[in-house]
Design a protein that fits this description.
The structure is a homodimer of 347-residue chains. Chain A has helices at 14-23, 71-87, 108-124, 176-193, 205-212, 220-227, 241-252, 267-275, 280-286, 302-305; strands at residues 33-35, 42-46, 49-59, 92-102, 128-136, 142-152, 167-171, 233-237, 254-259, 292-297, 311-319, 324-327, 333-335. Chain A is of the alpha+beta class. In chain A, helix 3 (108-124) links the parallel strand 4 and strand 5 (128-136).
């Protein structure tokens, strides 16, 4: 099909490179298009109240493995991934549309399970399913969800507005979803080589739930309001802290110092990572799928978050020239590089 | 995976049956969710100005065949399919999001071609690409587009509000996209059996364009305004006239009489259908992909459309008890049945 042209394989650009490459030429024409490609969600102005739109596609064999991902959990997770993007704008999701491509291997009961997960996620955050498309697929399952939210104009928080000297904060703990994935992958391999062995997942509930049933941080947005806190910038952590902090800093034109000793890691994540001979810090930086929020606040707002069990300060914003630095426990400094998950990476 | 449960194959419900089955339990919770699943697009209220949302997924091997569909045309068509749904609400599209799942067989140049088509369609109707997701796929290409439009509350036209005695009208002509598809399929078969033979597509420009580069009827919406005409109900014709008129009538709780002799059919469509030993009326009723608008108007509005070259009156609305009837040229009456395209039909 493409014989006579010079061609470039997708993985040379990577997912973000490809998106930048494809969207560089876009010039927004509609006055109501306040923010287009490049943040967690697009922003549409309706006379002051902003409509916030985000979309994510999950593909079987790429984003999920049905051999250990129950369909109900998959539906739940597919919604959470999208809601997380809306929350990362400091907005509130209200509606979603759901498009599915299904191969004929799925009986209706399986699709129902998937939808039950979708509905459970929507019920949890009072979000309506307002539309979608359901079609057949020649191969695996594809789920494409678009989430639509709302925010007042002055409430919106972008990823482009971090300021030098701001504090860098995260919600919850990090690395757990990746530790859960490692565990599931290990049990799958054992099962494949000896189907008689039952999976040994006991005592790992927390990290398994982090992987199989992640929860978007919809609780944080009203908490910010109660605290009278508006972050100076925000992004959700879907691809690992390293990738997200680089996005936020590069798009804000700033640098950062992160302190390894501050990273919030659940004891189970720590222990599991060790048992896989992995540095827990690596799980935090490169693991992904935690769906926590990374945000910056003005120094003067520190008192508002001090002692809050949901929020950890992990570093601060510097000027761009200082670069992106990780200060590890012994005090040595390493540059942060993006090794987050890339959909087009060659394995 | 599903061994221990009673299972039902997807095709037993069909695409619309499956959607109804899966969405029957939805209860909208948000005050701003004016209309959810079941129309061309969802409707969200922003204090009077309505946000209209529609989504469509196109899957390689199901909705398109890359052996004769150039990628640029595919991108163009994928957008038009979605804009058509917004126009069918009597609304104006403003933004789209684009999600792609791509197998590694696509070089970047191919993805650019696809995007060039997407951008061309957006430029034509002044629509912004405001977001999306690009990921890899283990198999074919999947395109999921969500279109977002706007309309004043009192401008919106649903598919549920046709009234007895209304006139049934369509824009443009019908059946052409299907005639174009038949031609492309024939040439593909010839090429497969003898790759030395060049495709013979000459003199078929119109029907090929109807199939490969359909145009949403964005011209009709401002025309309605100029004419001071608000249809009583409207739907776009994506799956063939039979399927769409049944949707519109069933959801409005009315019946209809359609007159075969009134069907607008382009001479080339007519001739091609005959050359394939097909009744041109069958192409109109069951062909699909014309992306024209089917709408009803009050009898008293007839003078507004009389003589308009873009609009043809093809029948009228009756009470539900009278059923859904096609009156053919010799005066005999046949019940209209849905034989439109169904994504889950077994071949």
């Amino acid at each position: 099909m493409f014989e006579n042209k010079t061609t470039t394989e997708l993985h040379t650009l990577g997912e973000f490179g490809l998106i930048r490459h494809l969207t560089a030429q876009i010039e927004l024409q509609q006055q109501s298009s306040v923010r287009g490609v490049g943040d967690d969600a697009a922003v549409i102005d309706n006379a002051g109240m902003m409509t916030v739109v985000s979309t994510d596609m999950l593909v079987e064999g790429v984003h999920f493995d049905l051999s250990y991902m129950p369909l109900k959990h998959l539906g739940y997770k597919a919604v959470m991934v999208n809601l997380s993007d809306i929350y990362a704008m400091n907005a509130t999701p209200r509606q979603i549309t759901v498009s599915l491509a299904l191969s004929s291997k799925f009986p209706i009961e399986a699709v129902e399970e998937l939808y039950n997960g979708i509905y459970a996620a929507c019920a949890k955050w009072k979000v309506d399913v307002v539309g979608g498309d359901t079609t057949s697929s020649k191969s695996g399952l594809v789920i494409s969800i678009t989430a639509i939210g709302v925010a007042h104009k002055d409430e919106l928080v972008y990823r482009t507005t971090a300021q030098e000297k701001d504090l860098l904060c995260v919600t919850g703990d990090l690395g757990g979803a990746y530790a859960g994935l490692l565990l599931l992958e290990r049990e799958k391999e054992i099962y494949k080589s000896n189907p008689g062995i039952q999976p040994d997942l006991e005592g790992n509930d927390y990290i398994l739930e982090r992987q199989l049933k992640p929860e978007a941080r919809g609780d944080i947005i009203p908490m910010f309001k109660e605290m009278g806190l508006k972050p100076t910038s925000m992004i959700d952590i879907s691809d690992g802290l390293a990738s997200e902090v680089l996005h936020l800093c590069k798009e804000s034109g700033v640098g950062c110092n992160l302190y390894e000793e501050k990273f919030p890691i659940d004891p189970m994540t720590f222990e599991r990572a060790r048992s896989f001979n992995l540095d827990p810090t690596t799980c935090v930086l490169n693991g992904g799928e935690d769906y926590e929020l990374l945000f910056t606040i003005a120094l003067g707002d520190y008192e508002k978050i001090k002692g809050n069990p949901h929020i950890t300060t992990i570093g601060h914003v510097t000027n761009a020239a200082a670069g992106y630095n990780l200060i590890i426990r012994d005090g040595s400094v390493y540059p942060i590089t993006a090794q987050g998950w890339d959909a087009f990476r060659k394995e």
